[in-house]
Model the fold of this input.
Amino acid sequence: MLSIVIPTKNEEKYLPKLLKSIGKQTFCDYEIIVADNASHDRTREIAANFNCKIVQGGLPAAGRNHGAEAATGDIILFLDADTELPDVDFLKNGLAEFEKKDLAMGVPIATTKGNYLDHLFFRWWNYFVASSQFVKPLAGGWCIFVKRNLHQQLGGFDEKLMLGEDSDYAQRGVKLGKFRFMSNAKVQVSPRRLKKEGYLKVLAQDVGLGLYLLTHGKMDEKNIFGYEFDIYDEGKKGK
Done:
């Protein structure tokens, strides 16, 4: 079985799209666990309507960890709530590549349904991550396949890290198992952060963070790049 873990906070707009895309998959042997961080909208109601298992969440690292604690599958797929699976064979193809390459952790290619600049940004991200995988792997927390026993060996995501907890997770994981950037599965990521903060700001943040992680290893508890959390409503400023 595959365990799909989704951390949420006030995701009533995006969560239904993701859950519907999961429901259309040709691969059906999965469970869905929503780790909710005290949403005050309809997020939990929506999760319940889709027969998801609901657990207490937190910031992304804590939410993923709490969801993984409730997982029963041998493989965990971490997804952000604002992603979608654009291909009905995403799970089937992703798991096939994961098993064929005997991976312990894998990060699929990211795409977006936004405009040209949105596509260009994610092409750059794919190239950046693919180029680093053999040196010091980086990862996008929006979509990670991982063997549950590896997640347990790692002690999960480091909840003390303000930023880069996903790449820290990959860098610790590669010491215990095989990590690869996956080419046969593509996950669609919302461009809402690009729209909210602007292309240049996000590019500067992500390049700076990526280079910092490659040279220093982890971010500790600092947020020196001004990354905004809780950007769940495009009409409100993140906190």
